[in-house]
């Protein structure tokens, strides 16, 4: 009898060791997020209806962007379920959500392992014909040392019986659900450990190095190598194309004591005048991003005639543009802004401005540049009648 295969992909982690504002599972390789690669691979072994993603609801925008970049056949993917504070709790939430769909077996996978292959999945499923659990592993290649807390070696551990555990970890569904329910709140670092605790056999099958977990930045570079080699063999792999957009804006000065520039309050002898908070920096960046995705300009999305934008904080406009990029499955590669004025002096504020823009766009601060120039006292900026700004944005969008 053909077994009904359920899948739980855990993607609710925050990627602290990866150290980027965007959680690692939402970083892209070859036009798709790490999570997207996993979803597509498992959907091939079962149907998308049986693939349950576990996520952090605070990551909704990133999640939507990840799904938007996938093929049309993924549209029947169930809504993601919220995770817990530990991987183990996230797995349990996923298993509970999946139980109504009554799978016979379940494969539990880390979204942080985008290099999962059909072969590894097939080996795990095959081993489940004779065992309650099966996991992919790789033998340990290095000599393993046990050390004291201060780093002095206390023992050399024979490595011939040691294996590195990967995912997907496959189980008879009812067995692993019952085990996770029983051990809820106790700490285990993988799912196989729960069956081990119950004295049940878990079989090891051969994993692959491409399936190693992305934990730190270096691991991500390694995964880039994997995707490059996969692309050569797989014409259907989705590719990215790069788009550029530019923006330009001017706001005049009016009586006041500070300007809002890139979301930062900059003390000055005048304020900038405008329908919103007149943040010339954020308006210009918004136009550059809208330009790169062919989405018109800020005035079309937020008409000056609309009173709801009167005095509005311009964060809203820039965030809207970034959301449009993510909804198309794209990502912001970098933005570069030049503020053009004699005064106020911008230099002392560029760090805070870059951080604020990065926060609004939800990208790394290294992808944001803010600089300033004068016009040598020529023209309206030179006469200190207002501030002009120009910006460029580079966006990667999936092709096809
Ligand atoms: N509360 C958690 C913690 C982790 N995970 C998922 O479990 C997998 C393996 O965890 P790990 O590599 O530790 O991911 P993070 O928890 O995101 O990373 P870190 O420990 O560095 O914060 C990842 O796909 C992660 O998203 C999860 O769903 N829920
Ligand atoms: C489940 C796992 O990926 C198997 O290697 C690993 O144990 C997850 O551990 P982490 O500490 O949450 O990265």
How many distinct helices?
Answer: 12
- The dominant shape is elongated
Total beta strand runs: 19
- Strand count, sense and closure of the main sheet? 8 strands, mixed
What is the top-level CATH class of the largest domain? Alpha Beta
Structural class given helices, strands, pairing? alpha/beta
Work out the strand percent: 25-35%
Q: If you compute it from the alpha carbons, what radius of gyration comes out, rounded to the nearest whole angstrom?
A: 26 Å
Task: Report the uncertain regions.
Answer: none
Termini separation (Å)? Answer: 38 Å
Bound molecules: cytidine-5'-triphosphate, the ligand C[C@](O)(CO)[C@H](O)COP(=O)(O)O
Helical residues, percent? 25-40%
CATH fold-level label of the largest domain: Spore Coat Polysaccharide Biosynthesis Protein SpsA, Chain A
* Quaternary class: single chain
Count of domain modules: 2
What do the pLDDT scores average to?
93
CATH architecture of the largest domain: Alpha-Beta Complex
Explain this structure to me?
This protein is of the alpha/beta class. The protein has 2 domains: 5-233, Spore Coat Polysaccharide Biosynthesis Protein SpsA, Chain A, CATH 3.90.550; 240-398, 2-C-methyl-D-erythritol 2,4-cyclodiphosphate synthase (60s Ribosomal Protein L30, Chain: A, 2-Layer Sandwich). Helix content is 30%, strand content 27%. It is built from 12 helices and 19 strands. The strands form 5 sheets. Strands 1, 4, 5, 6, 7, 10, 11 and 12 form an 8-stranded mixed beta sheet that branches. The protein has a 5-stranded mixed beta sheet with strand order 16-13-19-17-18. A two-stranded antiparallel ribbon has the order 2-3. α2 runs parallel beside α10, α3 (87-99) crosses α5 (173-182) and α8 (280-292) packs parallel to α10. The protein is elongated and about 80 Å long. The two termini are 38 Å apart. The structure holds cytidine-5'-triphosphate (CTP) and the ligand C[C@](O)(CO)[C@H](O)COP(=O)(O)O. The site of the ligand C[C@](O)(CO)[C@H](O)COP(=O)(O)O has 8 residues, from loops.
């Amino acid at each position: 009898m053909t077994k009904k295969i359920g899948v739980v992909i855990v993607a609710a982690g925050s990627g602290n060791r990866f150290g980027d504002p965007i959680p690692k599972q939402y970083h892209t390789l070859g036009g798709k997020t790490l999570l997207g690669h996993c979803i597509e691979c498992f959907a091939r072994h079962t149907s998308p209806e049986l693939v349950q993603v576990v996520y952090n609801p605070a990551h909704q925008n990133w999640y939507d962007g990840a799904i938007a970049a996938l093929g049309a056949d993924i549209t029947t993917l169930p809504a993601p379920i919220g995770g817990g504070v530990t991987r183990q709790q996230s797995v349990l939430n996923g298993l509970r959500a999946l139980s109504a769909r009554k799978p016979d077996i379940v494969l539990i996978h880390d979204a942080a392992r985008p290099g999962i292959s059909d072969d590894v999945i097939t080996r795990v499923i095959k081993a489940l014909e004779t065992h309650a659990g099966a996991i992919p592993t790789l033998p340990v290649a290095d000599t393993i040392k046990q050390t004291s807390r201060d780093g002095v070696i206390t023992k050399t551990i024979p490595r011939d019986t040691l294996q590195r555990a990967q995912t997907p970890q496959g189980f008879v569904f009812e067995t692993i659900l019952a085990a996770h329910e029983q051990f809820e709140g106790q700490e285990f670092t993988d799912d196989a450990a729960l069956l081990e605790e119950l004295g049940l056999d878990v079989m090891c099958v051969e994993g692959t190095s491409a399936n190693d977990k992305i934990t730190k930045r270096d691991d991500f570079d390694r995964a880039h190598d994997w995707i490059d080699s996969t692309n050569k063999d797989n014409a259907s792999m989705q590719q990215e194309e790069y788009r550029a957009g530019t923006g330009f804006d001017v706001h005049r000065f009016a009586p006041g004591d500070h300007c809002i520039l890139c979301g930062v309050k900059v003390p000055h002898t005048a304020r900038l005048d405008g329908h919103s908070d007149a943040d010339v920096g954020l308006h210009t960046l918004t136009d550059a991003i809208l330009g790169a995705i062919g989405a018109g300009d800020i005035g079309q999305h937020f008409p000056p005639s609309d009173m709801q934008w009167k005095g509005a904080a311009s964060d809203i406009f820039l965030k809207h543009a970034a959301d449009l990029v993510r909804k198309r499955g794209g990502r912001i590669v970098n933005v570069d802004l030049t503020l053009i004025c004699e005064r106020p002096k911008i230099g002392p504020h560029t760090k805070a401005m870059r951080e604020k823009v990065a926060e609004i766009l939800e990208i790394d601060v290294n992808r944001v540049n803010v600089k300033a120039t004068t016009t040598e006292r020529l023209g309206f900026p030179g006469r200190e009648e207002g501030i002009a700004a120009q910006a460029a944005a580079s966006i990667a969008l999936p092709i096809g």
